[in-house]
Design goal:
The complex is a heterodimer of chains A (337) and B (524). With 337 residues, chain A is of the alpha/beta class. Chain A has 10 helices and 17 strands. Classes of the chains: A alpha/beta (337), B alpha/beta (524).
């Protein structure tokens, strides 16, 4: 429908020299940022953790400067592809200005991204959300289910940096040995690491809740529980922690962050009652934007909201919008209708 | 030579014969099969014919009547004068208005502003305003009504011409060594950045998304927007020395006081300059809550903004199979969302060979005359067989009837009576019936387009910012001032765009431009 061609034509009277870049002491930073360093970030390292998961390290100066444990990011291959949320798995691990994230194959979106290797580039929008609140925690249990343990390890590192004397226990849960990620990193940072697998081929056979019960029944004082993982696990842990042992729990919810923290979409709306660590009381149940007050939420989360966000409902067709627009605006011979 | 040259029957052909004033448009039946733009831009020939119809008439104040309601106060007659002479560059310069966002205003201005002289906000025409062809002699019912001069079409044509030929009206003045940070790259942000740059400031624009353009890109569906034009405008601004940073959320990342004090150091050791002023152009906040049960946890109830955003930002769009889509509200967002839903169903059917028999209904609690959307868009929507249900709203407290899987099946609507009396916003007041008249309608996707609320995240993240209790928006130094009241902090913060109240693209551009005048007085 467009009846003009957009040809690159030089701009007349474009500023040059002093008019284009400052000549003062800020000239360096100005020319560095004029390239928009976070528009297309370069992968500086990728570690294959299993057949379906990779740990990526990317150059992202703004994310490394302001990112903190517990915050998340939006990944995208290019402008035409869809957004995949991920949480911080480390900051500055591969030199200053780098951030890390763990990606597991959970569908066509992430499969596309997992094909990337060192030297490739992708779009990363980081950081999104609030960092995990770690003040005043002296003894913590961090539970990571599946690829959620990347978040747990990152939180543990942040807690160790904040409070070197803290007693940190990390419980990793996975289906089989293949899906136990970042065990070495966890052992480096934590005082104690427990591993549970569903099949029992590595660590102890069982679930992460077994480990949590074991610790709490032994009478160990635990200030706070941090958890990241599948909805079923988080629901069980939250139930156990709040109703049985009355310990505040910090849950990293994983809804789709479609707009990336700008209030535009309601995709990340959750319902929760927040815990006030100073008053030691729970607030009222209310809806909240996970991109603004989460994704790690200290308090009790209503997982019926979470389920709505992650399941594909019957009677609906999920239409791949990005693909549709692309096909419609730039039809190829095969798709031309 | 069997063909003989036919002589002209009349000395001068009728205007209606030669005038292709209406944009070429695809028929409704075929345009709903695609998300692509369906209005063709004017060609040079069309624009020339159009410009020759202009009388360059002047009203008392000196401005032509078409320009009296233009928020940017541009002299439209000068544009047509120059266009007639063939001086396209001067014509574009006349419409530049100090911001140079011609292609945006040409596309997104409601045409009623200049063509019919309607006020922004209330839908009433000002006496003596608008194109002279729309004046008292204008008779839309006559056989050959004289078409109003296609102002915005020619403007858009000139805007694209300026981009393609590299005309530069934004060459910066000699640099004054001061730095400005603009938060948000929407219409207001771009206008502020461009105006500051022209005054000789160094401007850095922070955008939290990957794509520049803000709500123009993700709030307006592809069949109404011109993505390459926005991208090209940004490119031109970069060539003039403005720096764009994508993926930086000010507040979550650097805070506004950090930027002003120059406390931001990058991981590689480089330090950002201290910014003399910060422009907050972050746009509107979340969609207004419906205030009913099951708003956020029912499958099939969504915000219309999210629906539209997913089209552009790469997400999954919910599309009910063979059922009814209802949009609550009657603003531009509502009309855009419903037309998008209609198109998606047709595209899905074509691509996957799976027919969807979908009905699309707009539910609004007032009458047709109070609808906020652009009249042309409403007319287009009606052509596309969009249905309208007036005088109805969602029944409180629980309008959503779901099945056992929590999927929306039906909605309960309550009939309203529209009173003759008008409220503060120039719209009719409404009242519920006693007892309430309710009805149940099958509905499988309900989109909430009731409007947006204040964006509170930047207020929460910045000390000193507060909400004005009278207006409900960001507290400013005065009604005509764009400077934000930061109390004892006394920070040089200016606000423009939707954060001062939702408005049009063109009013956002006006605010972005005008705040620079105010800021320049204080900074220089």
């Amino acid at each position: 429908m467009r009846n003009y061609e957009l040809l690159p034509v030089a701009l007349e009277n474009a500023p040059k020299g002093d008019q284009f870049a400052p000549a003062d002491e800020h000239a360096g930073v100005w020319s560095y940022l004029s390239k928009d360093p976070c528009a297309n970030v370069r992968i500086v390292g990728d570690e294959e953790l299993s057949d379906v998961a990779k740990l990526f390290h990317v150059e992202h100066p703004w994310g490394a400067l302001y990112g903190k444990a517990g915050q998340c990011m939006n990944l995208r291959l290019n402008k035409e592809s869809k957004v995949v949320p991920a949480t911080f798995a480390g900051i500055g691990k591969k030199g200053p200005g780098t951030i890390s994230f763990l990606l597991q194959n959970a569908g066509p979106r992430s499969a596309e991204l997992l094909k990337l290797r060192q030297g490739d580039s992708l779009e990363v929008n980081a950081p999104i959300g609030q960092p995990t609140e770690l003040d005043g925690v002296n003894s913590a249990v961090l539970l990571g289910g599946g690829y959620g343990c990347a978040t747990s390890v990152c939180q543990a590192e942040a807690l160790r940096a904040l409070n070197p004397d803290a007693h940190i226990t990390i419980i990793i849960g996975a289906r089989t040995y293949e899906f136990v990620y970042l065990e070495n990193d966890a052992r480096k940072i934590a005082d104690e690491v427990m591993i549970y697998t569903d099949e029992g081929d590595y660590g102890t056979k069982g679930r992460v809740t077994d480990g949590l019960t074991k610790i709490l029944d032994a009478g160990t004082k635990v200030d706070r529980i941090f958890q990241t993982g599948p909805v079923a696990m988080m629901r069980a842990v939250q139930d156990l922690a709040i109703n049985k042992y009355n310990i505040p729990v910090d849950t990293s919810v994983n809804p789709p962050f479609e707009c990336g923290g700008g209030y535009i979409c309601d995709s990340c709306v959750i319902r929760a009652r927040f815990y006030d660590p100073e008053e030691k009381t729970y607030g009222d149940w209310r809806t909240a934007f996970a991109c603004q007050e989460g994704p790690s939420i200290l308090g009790e989360v209503d997982f019926s909201y979470e389920v709505k966000l992650v399941t594909e409902p019957d009677g609906f067709r999920q239409v791949d919008a990005a693909n549709l627009e692309h096909r419609q605006l730039y039809p190829t011979k095969e798709t031309q209708v | 030579m069997s063909d003989t040259i036919k002589p002209f029957k009349k000395k001068f052909p009728e205007i209606s014969e030669i005038n292709p004033a209406k944009r070429k448009r695809t028929s409704p039946a075929s345009r709903i099969n695609t998300l692509a733009r369906f209005r063709e831009d004017f060609s040079t020939v069309q624009s020339t014919i159009e410009s020759q119809r202009c009388f360059h008439c002047r009203a008392n104040k000196g401005l032509p009547p078409c320009a009296t309601e233009c928020p940017l106060e541009r002299d439209i007659a000068v544009m047509f004068q120059n266009y007639q002479r063939g001086d396209f560059r001067k014509a574009a310069e006349a419409m530049d208005a100090g911001v140079g966002l011609l292609s945006l205003t040409g596309d997104y201005c409601p045409e009623d502003l200049c063509k019919k002289g309607k006020h922004v906000g209330s839908g009433e025409s000002k006496k003596g305003a608008g194109c002279i062809y729309s004046g008292p002699n204008y008779d839309a019912d006559s056989k050959n009504p004289i078409e109003i001069v296609a102002i915005s079409e020619v403007e858009k044509h000139l805007g694209m011409m300026a981009l393609q030929h590299g005309w530069n009206f934004g060459t910066p003045s000699p640099r004054n060594g001061k730095y400005i940070a603009v938060i948000g790259s929407g219409a207001a942000g771009l206008a502020a950045a461009e105006s500051f740059n022209r005054k000789g400031y160094w401007v850095m624009v922070f955008e939290r998304d990957r794509v520049f353009g803000g709500v123009i890109i993700y709030g307006i569906p592809p069949f109404r927007r011109d993505t390459p034009a926005v991208a090209m405008t940004v490119e031109r601004m970069e060539e003039n020395g403005i720096i764009f940073q994508s993926g930086v959320t000010v507040g979550k990342g650097p805070t506004i006081p950090d930027l002003i004090e120059g406390n931001v150091a990058l991981p590689n050791g480089m330090k950002l300059p201290p910014f003399s002023a910060v422009v907050v152009a972050v746009g509107a906040g979340p969609t207004r809550s419906l205030g009913v049960e099951g708003e956020y946890n029912t499958i099939g109830v969504q915000s219309a903004n999210r629906y539209l955003m997913n089209i552009c930002n790469g997400g999954d769009v919910m599309l009910p199979a063979e059922f009814i889509v209802c949009v609550i509200g009657a603003g531009d967002t509502a009309i855009d969302a419903i037309r998008t839903a209609l198109r998606l169903s047709k595209i899905y059917a074509t691509l996957y060979g799976d027919a969807i028999n979908m009905r699309t209904v707009v539910v609004y609690y007032r009458d047709e005359e109070d609808m906020m959307a652009d009249a042309n868009e409403i007319a287009d929507a009606k052509e596309e067989s969009i249905e309208f249900l007036f005088r109805h709203r969602l029944a409180e407290p629980a309008p959503f009837i779901v099945n056992e899987k929590n999927v929306l099946q039906e909605i309960v609507l309550e009939e309203m009576q529209v009173l003759d009396e008008k409220g503060w916003n120039g719209k009719h007041k409404i009242a519920p019936y006693e007892p309430a008249k309710t009805m149940t309608k099958p509905c499988h996707l309900c989109l909430n387009a009731t409007g947006t609320t204040l964006n509170t995240s930047i207020i929460r993240d910045t000390p000193g910012l507060s909400v004005d209790e009278n207006t409900g928006y960001l507290k400013r130094m005065g009604p005509n001032s764009y400077k934000v009241d930061t109390g004892e902090h006394k920070l040089p913060i200016y606000a423009a765009g939707d954060i001062n109240g939702a408005g049009l693209v063109v009013t956002a551009i006006k605010e972005g431009r005008d705040l620079v005048e105010e800021a320049h007085q204080e900074l220089i």
